[in-house]
Amino acid sequence: MSEAFAHATVLLNEAVDALQVKPDGIYVDGTFGRGGHSRLILQKLGVQGRLIALDKDPTAIAAGRAIEDVRFTLVHRGFEQLAQVLQELGVGKVDGVLLDLGVSSPQLDDEQRGFSFRFDAPLDMRMDTSGGQTAAEWLATVEEKELAEVIRDYGEERFARQIARTIVAARQERAIETTKQLSDIVAQCVRTREPGKNPATRTFQAVRIYINRELEELENILPQCVEQLKAGGRMSIISFHSLEDRIVKRFMRDMAQGDKVPKFVPIRAADVPQGKVRLVGKPIYASEAELALNPRARSAVLRVAERLGG
Ligand SMILES: C[S@@+](CC[C@H](N)C(=O)[O-])C[C@H]1O[C@@H](n2cnc3c(N)ncnc32)[C@H](O)[C@@H]1O
Fold first, then answer.
1. Of 211, 238, 256, at which residue does a domain stop?
2. Substitution candidate for ligand 1 out of 55, 205, 243 with most atoms within 8 A of CB
């Protein structure tokens, strides 16, 4: 792998240890990236084990072709298609699913991808460059109200309305096609500077989440993880911002509680619906040692749940 576009895997041991890899188990890495977690899972698997990895970014898939291992299958698909992919591969239930959400360092560091305001580049931001709308295409037509909602909800940006208004006014003059154009527009509107944060950070996050449907896809994959896991199988999920983490946390909590029975319904203790998962430990954050090596790990949170059932 080229050093320029390497990915420093976050919570590597913590996320893989949480899976309690069995040598002959079947595992899924839903976010292959550059394969940091996948490689460690493969090290822990025996000859009968199997790892299925997915990524929707063609460059991740190309990088993963370097792994020549009969136990390993790499698929260019979104993880929200997990159940379908497992069915197509003829794989039944699995022993573990790992998701390391968000963007990879190679995506952020390759200026041509348009994810970062650090470079002046075409405003693309698609993880899957094989299809779909680019950020520039979306910004050319989106209605001001929807744009403001996206920036407010996905960027948690206080100045969302002003930013949306300024983008819509600016695009009448000239199409917004580059990261620099977008970050310059946002900088005009964001009046309170957050220490250490570029004023465009929240808007770029919002547009990226929207373009890649990141929260919908997360909502979609979580129930599939539970359904595809064998009893005792584990899901190990790393989130990178509060919106993702809230979805993962609520989902795991609800799955651990089971269906609610109205208070007035008489029910024997043995008939109280059981949860489908049990929460494993507390959320895990990167250690000081990891943060010193990789500051991008500072917002990472790992949550783990185990499938219950006979
Ligand atoms: C943080 S990186 C994963 C890094 C990886 N764990 C490693 O150690 O190299 C996230 C990866 O997930 C991919 N990704 C994000 N959303 C996805 C989705 N819905 N389906 C498949 N891949 C997705 C991105 O393209 C990116 O390569």
1. 211
2. 55
The tokens describing 148, both together, are 């403001």
Of 179, 211, 243, the one marking the end of a domain is: 211
Domain count, the chain: 2
Q: How far apart are CA 232 and CA 236, in angstroms?
A: 13
Q: Is residue 265 included in any domain, yes or no?
A: yes
Q: Give the range of the structural domain holding residue 135, as residue numbers without chain letter.
A: 129-211
3-state helix, strand, coil in the chain (%, to 5): 45, 15, 40
* Residue spans of beta strands (DSSP E) within 62-219: 72-76, 94-100
Q: Is residue 111 part of a domain?
A: no
Residue range 72-92, pLDDT digits in tens = 999 999 999 999 999 999 999
80 lines ligand 1 (CB under 6 A): yes
What is this structure's pTM? 0.94
**C-beta of 237 in contact with ligand 1 (< 6 A):** no
